Structures are given as C-alpha cells and as structure tokens.
Amino acid sequence: MRSTAAVLGSWDTKRDEMRYMRSRLENAGIAVVLVDVSTVVTEAFDDANGYSAQDIRRPLENEWRELAGAGRGAKIDFMARATRDFVVLLQERGQIDGVISAGGLQNTTLATAAMKALPIGFPKVMATTVATGRRSFMSVVGDRDVVVVPALADMAGLNFATRSTLNTACDCLIGLMSNRTELQRPDRPVVGLTLMGVTNAGAAGAIHQLERHGFEAVGFHATGAGGGVLEEFVRTGLVDAVLDMNLHEIVNECFQGGYSFGVRNRLSAAIERGIPLVVTPGGLDFVDYMVNEFEPGLAGRKYVLHNGTLAHIKLTVDEAAMVGGVVGERLRGARVPVRLVVPTAGLRADTDPGEPMHDPPVDEALVQAIVEHAGDGVEVERVAMNLNTEEFGALVADRMIEAFDHAGARPSTRQEVGSL
Questions:
Q1: Are 105 and 130 in contact (CB under 8 A)?
Q2: UPF0261 domain: from which residue to which, for each copy (predicted)?
C-alpha cells in the first residue's frame, strides 16, 4: 500500500502550488490528498481526492457561523484550530503518513497549527517566507520537528524561483516518508537534562556521570524552546526523570520578554507526573536581551556579551527574589521529594570573584526566595562549587541517580513511542 501525504493550503490563493506539490509527490510514488484551509471561499474546491474547507469546518459549523461578521484574524484563528483537529484525526486514523505546505504568514499559521500537534517523528515539511528575514522559527516549529524550507520568493504563483522551493520541500518530504524512523525509547532509563552555553561544563559532567551508571541523558537547550520540548517529553513519558540544571526560561517568563522568552510553566510537567526531579538554579541569575533591544532600566547594569549581538544582564536583588519566588512556588506543588542543589561559588560562567557576573547578594537573594517559597517538600543541599564545572555536574548526577533508585523506577523493556 502506498504512503499518503496531505498537502495543506488555501485553495483560493495556493491552488497552483498545491497541485504542483501533488504532481511532484505522485511522481515519487506517494499518494496525495489535498486539504483546503481557506478562510474565504472564492474558488470552489474541485478536487475529488481531498477535503474542502467546508469539510474541515463541519464539526465546528455553528461556531463558524457566529464568525460571519468577524474580522480576518478571528477567522484565521478558528481555521487554525479546525485544521489542527482535522489533520490530527487523519493521522490518528492512519489515513496520512506525512504532511506538507507552502506559503506566507497566513498559510504557515494554518498549516503549522496542525504540524505542531502531530507526533515527533511524523514527517512534516513547511516551505515558508516566515523563515526569511528577522523572524523567529519558534512561530513555525513550536516544540515539534517541522522541517522548514525558506521561501526566498513569495508563493504568488509558479515561476522558476517558487518551483525550486517547492521541489526542495517535496524532496524533503519524500526522503522523510521513504526512510521514516519511529522515535523509540532505549532499554535503559532516560534522564532529561537542561543546559546552556554558560553552564555547559556542568552539564557535560552530569551527562558523563549518568551514562557511566547506565542512564541515557538527553540534553535540552534552555533558551526559549528546549525547556518547552523537555516539558512535552515528560508529559508523554519519553523521559523517566529530570535533572533540571537550567531554568533560565522562567526568568524571561517573569520579564515577559528577552531572547529566551516563549516557554511558560517550566517545571510543571515533572511535578505533575511525580517523577524523580533534581533542580539546580542555573540560568536564573540573569536575563538575556539583544544589545539593541534593551528594555528601559536595563542599560548600565552588570552584563556580559554572549556574542556580538546578545547580552546576559545580571538581575538585581529584587528581581532575583521575584524570580526565585516563582521557582519556589512551582516546586511547592511537588508530590514527591525534590532535591535542590545550590552551588555557592557561582551559578554559571563569568561568576568568579572579579568577573563581570560575580554578585553574591543577587545569587543569595535568588536561592533564599526559592527555599522560602518551596516549603518542606524540597531538600536543599549547598555545595562550595561553581555550577559550570564538571565536578558539580557529576555531583548532581549522583543525586539524580540516588533519587531515581529510591523511586525504584528503572524500566526494563524497550518501548516504541507512537504519539506525543
């Protein structure tokens, strides 16, 4: 039986591109269904092997009628939800084996609403103008493995430039569907671990120690997306325990901005599931901003340049207490004991005496707030080390192993993960 790809697009504006992608995929031996995600029907959907916008809206038809006089934005939001639900249903029923789309902001918003709800490992490709210029990939991929193909020319008809982009996108999907590998858990227990460049030495030490003791450590870059992916891995059972060494995204959540802003409710998944959790305050003592986007009040503060365009700005005592309070309140909800390991000689690189991010009163205010708000369910251990050292990483890995063995949670069989 041939594999089937869903080609998503607004029929009123992307009809030619959708047909072109269908032809390219069918020539490679892949069956195709077209899915019309139009919010305005100007051209009747005339494809016998596909789904019209009316088909997609049918389960929510009453809600759609109520939007008759609404603006474009409300209709796009509605259609994004309807498209997501419809495409996920096709995938769950085994009617599609991959998904592809191409377009500008509107088509990208509609198509990736569905892609970001599909399982990790399920083939998904988006050719988009949103991947060019000064834009964030998070709006396209979220916490999923969407393959993004930059569209240098707008998808406003077929020409030598757009055909090249569509060919590349189709070739990506053909490759993914032809060589699909299911996401599988290993036989050994899995620990999700967070890291950043300024705490990499500590994370490397932890990973090495965990692997020496028979664990598989999966690292997540806690700078605006990785932490969110870790939360999703925890919720869906892909990891058995969490060594959350870097909670930096909570700082940006508190500031409602900065380079790493975008993930909300960090720490919630491990606490909800009640799996072994060891936490260190890495990444909590600074906020990151592009140097040309400093918020009012940030200029003149202690900072270090992470690169030529991004600055790490040390928090004040009051800001540290605010951030620590948020972390502590989240830890308070834990149903199982949580270990908080505090390195008293610095929470990251550049924090030794005389270095630009050295500020013990800020670090202490942060830790004190965490402890005060966390309550009795959190065991606190202070060690005279810098977080960004392999020795500290090995120590917190040992604490993770102790917590894991105490919980008696070592899995013994390989499990294939079918959905997220």
A1: yes
A2: 4-180, 188-402
Question: Three-state SS string across the chain, please?
Answer: CCCEEEEEECHHHHHHHHHHHHHHHHHCCCEEEEEECCCCCCCCCCCCCEECHHHHHHHHHHHHHHCCCCCHHHHHHHHHHHHHHHHHHHHHCCCCCEEEEEECHHHHHHHHHHHCCCCCCCCEEEEEHHHCCCCCCHHHHCCCCCEEEECCCCCCCCCHHHHHHHHHHHHHHHHHHHCCCCCECCCCCEEEEEECHHHHHHHHHHHHHHHHCCCEEEEEECCCCHHHHHHHHHHCCCCCEEEEEECHHHHHHHHCCCCCCCCCCCCHHHHHHCCCEEEEEECCCEEEEEHHHCCCCCCCCCEEECCCCEEEEECCHHHHHHHHHHHHHHHHCCCCCEEEEEECCCCCCCCCCCCCCCCHHHHHHHHHHHHHHHCCCEEEEEECCCCCCHHHHHHHHHHHHHHHHHHCCCCCCCCECCCC
Q: What CATH class has 4-178? A: alpha beta
Backbone angles phi, psi at 379, to 5 degrees: -90, 125
Query: Token pair of 208, please?
Result: 């090495």
* Domain segments of the chain as ranges: 4-178, 190-407
Give yes or no on whether 4-178 and 190-407 have one common fold.
Answer: yes
Q: How confident is the model at residue 132 (pLDDT cuts 50, 70, 90)?
A: confident
Counting Cβ atoms within 10 Å, is residue 111 exposed (0-12), middle (13-18) or buried (19+)? buried
Distance CA 244, CA 371 (A): 16
The reported pLDDT for the residue numbered 135 is 65
Q: Considering the entire predicted model, what is its pTM?
A: 0.80
Which tokens hold the place of 87? Answer: 């495409």
User: How does pLDDT run across 194-228, given as a tens digit for each residue?
Assistant: 999 999 999 999 999 999 999 999 999 998 888 98
Percentage of residues in the chain having pLDDT higher than 90: 67
Give per-residue pLDDT as tens, 354-407: 999 999 999 999 999 999 999 888 999 999 999 999 999 999 999 999 999 988
pLDDT band at 410 (very low <50, low <70, confident <90, very high): low
Task: Name the phi and psi angles at 94, rounded to 5.
Answer: 75, 20
Q: Which amino acid is at 289?
A: Y
User: CA-to-CA distance for 103 and 394, rounded, in angstroms?
Assistant: 47
Task: Report pLDDT for 136.
Answer: 67
